[in-house]
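Q: Can someone sanity-check these two? First one:
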Amino acid sequence: MPTFTAPDGTRLAYRTHGDGEPLLCVPGGPADSAYLGDLGGLPAHRRLIVLDLRGTGRSAIPADTSSYRCDRLVEDIEALRSHLGLARADLLAHSAGANPAAQYLARHPDRVHRLALITPGSRAVGIAVTGEARRAVAMLRKDEPWFPTAFAALEAITEGTGSDWEAVSPFFHGRWDAAARRHQEASRPDNEEAVALFAAEGAFDPPATRAALAGCGTAVLLLAGEFDVNSPPRSVAESAELFPGATYVVQRGAGHYPWLDDAERFVETVAAFLA
């Protein structure tokens, strides 16, 4: 697995899939990027450069763990772009990875050609996901056999009386089958400190980020999953309004990992945008 050095000296790893024009991919979590796989076959169109965030996968644990903070991850993305010798990069970010990606665009708009945000987190732009939005999406699955248990856990989380995200797992997938169960297990963050410090004080400055994004002319895709309680379509649509001329798409029948639920449709949407 190839590596490069971040500005603070931390050794970071990345993996590649396919050939052609590079697409820098930022995972969510923070978690081992292996859960992204090959994004449903996207390497048929682009060469994926998939970053392991610091302290995850094969990237080193930093000497200064405060560097796990979201805004400080921005310079890891910039270091990867520089390492690859790209004047401008196409970026794809999933889930929580959309936060440093949005901050990267705000800080370095001239270095981003296109940005695809897949079922994106929105803390960097100050958009909170409400319990009402989660419930509305969850109710679309009321006829599923696992619904009563999963919905009770979701209600407890929403009301602040529970924290059993494992029980809510079926809501993250368009189909709760054996493959989804395996993927859910593989996508679980493995560095609790990185997760805890990702949103530490100072990680986000939504007014500044919004102001910077409002002046960007970069092409941006925001893709939501119809069934995603983590990043409900309503919240993703609200985020899309912050990017001038953004493309907003809802993938029907998909959860938080749309390349698993319908790889063909996902790849078709993303490849067309990047083209």
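And here is the second, same format, sequence then tokens:
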Amino acid sequence: MQPRDNLASDLTDTIQHNVRNALEEDIGSGDITASLIPAGQMAKARILCREPAVIAGRPWFDEVFRQIDPSVALDWQVQEGERVEADQVLVFMEGPARSLLTGERAAMNFLQTLSGTATRCYHYANLVKATGVKLLDTRKTLPGLRLAQKYAVMAGGCHNHRIGLYDAFLIKENHIAACGGIEQAVSTARAMAPGKPVEVEVENMEEFQRARSAGADIIMLDNFPLDALRETVKLNNSLPAPQPGLEASGGITDERLPLIAATGVDFISIGTLTKDIQSIDLSMRLVDTTEI
């Protein structure tokens, strides 16, 4: 069994919910600054990307203007997941000036944040592109934007781990202690939810062998040195099937990532894919205004 990209393909409800919350937070009782502009004034604008990036978040951007004013026309110049260069135009916009300015910040917040996530993922995926390893995200996401960031992870070329606490078991040290041992924890998980993936985090070779004997689907090798990772992969491959997937975790840096991938593990989980992101620098400029 391997972790799957189990993010639902239809995110319509999530996108609408994210945008409603963002607009309520930003606009509140009304955009008093935009009200300075005559109601009939039309405008054209463009969004520029000020640095190299992988673009993600178009559906959220579009939904902002769909909720504010469906008459706003958007002409995208890039595809979702496309890599762009500095000073490249992402989208041309046309509609009521008030609507463009009211939606500007909320729309760009989504685009810059999700593009930042996708760009970081692209960077890491590029470091191991010559290997067969899959890079996985974690639950270290921005509150309220779990599915949005996991969507951006895939746009950047990485993969999703579990979505939350409900769709897969991840049995860690404290769970093991509270359950009375690895074997007991795995057995209880199987009995409770036979169809759910069961992953066990281990910290040494003895725990690995116990998790394997217990029938874990995936075994997370937490902070294993490189030599120990190689030894564990070799042992796992030499033992009778079924062979659990092996996931390395902890201490991931740009320098160590290719070395970890070369040990032969199946997966590497990296919290920084969603946790330590830097938003992409975007700007919106009005290019023409007319009155009707």
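A (reply): Looked at the second one. The chain is about 40% helix and 20% strand. The longest strand covers residues 282-291.
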